[in-house]
Task: structure prediction
Amino acid sequence: MTPTITAFERSPDRGRGLARDMRVRWALEEVGQPYEVRLVSFQAMKEPAHLALHPFGQIPTYEEGDLVLFESGAIVFHIAESHAGLLPDDAHARARAVMWMFAALDTVEPPIFDRTLVMILERKEPWYEQRLHALEGSIRKRLGSLSTRLGDAEWLDGAFSAGDLLMVTVLRRLHGSGMLDEFPNLSAYVARGEARAAFKRAYAAQRAVFTAASTG
Ligand code: GTB
Result:
């Protein structure tokens, strides 16, 4: 059964692949699972039909027969569990790959995403510089620890896994901030993720939505 995911009709990131449908597209591409995309407007996301799929009125969602999922991490986990290629067979290695999925979403993503929000929503507030500085301090702390753990390895724990997929999507949000460049092994790690054929297909697919919206 071909799954259907939802994505922004007009992504505020202007096709840079920073919205959370990107990680779902990438996971589907990695495992070779064709998918369909239903584009939704900001208004439609808050209407009953979409709220029945996603209680918080967001993207992405995932529909496969009578299975409906929201939360990008849960969706990527479901894809990784139901196809070969994103989780190792060995039980301990699999548990560690899942651990890295949680680390990406629970430990590394929050300060990075908060920084984006502060830059968009709080730029005119009197606390802006102080808050930004504090968040960037938290991000650097996380990047430093991650960089030390990664060392010279290609991926976080052996072969590329769903843990790497999520971590790379999280770190990509720092492009242009200069912070990734302070950790050359992390920059190279993100570049390795972005060089994967499946990433490129997913990126091109979401980029095509932006291009069509801007020319149509
Ligand atoms: N925890 C949920 C998950 O992982 O699926 C979070 C889902 C989420 O934040 N969805 C966002 C959304 O639907 C889109 S990805 N927002 C609309 C709303 O809440 O009304 C977040 C996002 C938005 C924009 C950019 N950007 O422009 O760069 C990047 C990421």
In short: Residues 11-13, 18-20, 45, 57-60, 71-73 surround S-(P-nitrobenzyl)glutathione (CB under 6 Å).
